[in-house]
Design a protein that fits this description.
This protein has three domains: about 110 residues, no CATH class; about 80 residues, no CATH class; about 55 residues, no CATH class. The longest helix is centred in the middle third of the chain and has 23 residues. Strands 6-7-1-8-11 form a five-stranded mixed sheet, sandwiched between helices. It is about 40% helix and about 15% strand. The chain is of the alpha+beta class.
């Protein structure tokens, strides 16, 4: 499920990599009696839902801070705007804002072991694993989230709420529609979540096509800059900032599972940019490899990361323990691939 909410996480890739932790048991191998439902719930803005009574109920010590800083104004150089008083929320740019988001949403958590609630800034996903066609825990989790939003002055926008069902069984059947507030939730085959297009067949063709199309649109501006006479260094910087940054969004999540045709389509964008810039540019595969190594190194250095235990060294201390996988999808995902890359780089 997708809700526009809450707990800040440093990087988008961190979220998808955390999500894949629950998939280490190979979904296709168990697809004969299981399917996964994922709901995306849209709620109205949470930037100003921190009402005083809600703050007092959950934690009272920061209420005085918000009261003392309720009068705000904008200042540009020596010019200041008129002062207004905030009755809800916290001052914009306040250092307490991330902490307030975390504290206010701390009690929004899954109650069933087969369900997972993932909160990222103002987007929330509810993932439920359904076994033997028993959807009771999943639907109870959705009802619990709906009640939590109501208690915390949040209104779910059912029109923007989506449900996606991942089911690899041969005898597929659509479950009864999910209702929120008396309105049926739309079932979709794919949706865009945190900048990545996720499909119910767990392929990345929709996401790759979107990125290639968006990158080609931005190549137009790169060609205009070359016609204006800018040098290669400026063109390269523009490519890295405007084109590559879009094309490589969360690349550690999806690149390993892309087909050969999809990787060629991405590389064609790089070659087109290379002809425009006039110098060599890193390939998509090189970018993926370097980012995998960097991300894995950061996880290994952070013992509080939920995936830290997956990078366990062998008794010799020279290599990491490989992650067993029964399917190609899991084998090409981030964690097994990162372990292989680190092991191929020599002693740790």
């Amino acid at each position: 499920m997708k809700c526009e909410q809450w707990t800040p996480i440093p990087h988008t890739e961190h979220l998808f990599q955390s999500l894949s932790l629950s998939d280490l048991h190979d979904s296709r191998a168990e697809a004969t009696n299981r399917n996964v439902s994922e709901n995306i719930v849209e709620v109205k803005s949470v930037a100003d839902f921190a009402h005083q009574r809600l703050l007092e109920r959950k934690f009272g010590e920061v209420v005085q801070f918000c009261d003392d800083n309720a009068d705000v104004f904008t200042e540009i150089h020596d010019i200041s705007s008129s002062t207004i008083t905030l009755s809800t929320g916290s001052p914009q740019g306040c250092v307490l804002s991330p902490l307030l988001f975390t504290l206010l949403t701390h009690d929004c958590s899954a109650r069933h072991p087969s369900c997972l609630i993932v909160k990222f800034a103002d987007d929330t996903a509810v993932v439920g694993r359904i076994a033997n066609n028993d959807e009771s825990s999943y639907r109870q989790e959705v009802e619990h989230l709906e009640g939590w939003c109501r208690e915390n002055n949040l209104c779910i926008n059912v029109k923007k709420t989506k449900e996606m069902i991942v089911d690899f069984r041969r005898g597929k059947h659509l479950p009864p529609p999910l209702h929120i507030g008396g309105t049926a939730v739309e079932v979709v085959s794919s949706f865009r979540y945190l900048g990545v297009n996720i499909s119910n067949d767990l392929t990345w063709s929709t996401n790759t096509s979107y990125l290639v199309r968006k990158a080609h649109q931005r190549l137009y501006f790169l060609r205009r800059l070359r016609r204006a006479g800018l040098g290669s260094s400026v063109l390269t910087s523009f490519y890295r900032c405007v084109v590559e940054s879009v094309m490589c969004t969360c690349i550690t999540v999806w690149h390993g599972s892309c087909s050969a045709a999809e990787k060629k389509a991405l590389q064609r964008v790089v070659k087109a940019a290379q002809r425009t810039v006039g110098c060599s540019l890193p390939t998509i595969t090189d970018t993926y490899t370097s980012r995998c190594r960097k991300r894995a190194s950061c996880i290994m250095k952070d013992p509080t990361h939920p995936a830290h235990a997956l990078f366990a060294p062998l008794p010799s201390g020279r290599r990491l323990r490989s992650i067993k996988s029964r399917t190609t999808r899991l084998r090409n995902s981030f964690f097994p691939e990162a372990v292989r890359l680190l092991n191929s780089g020599g002693p740790l």
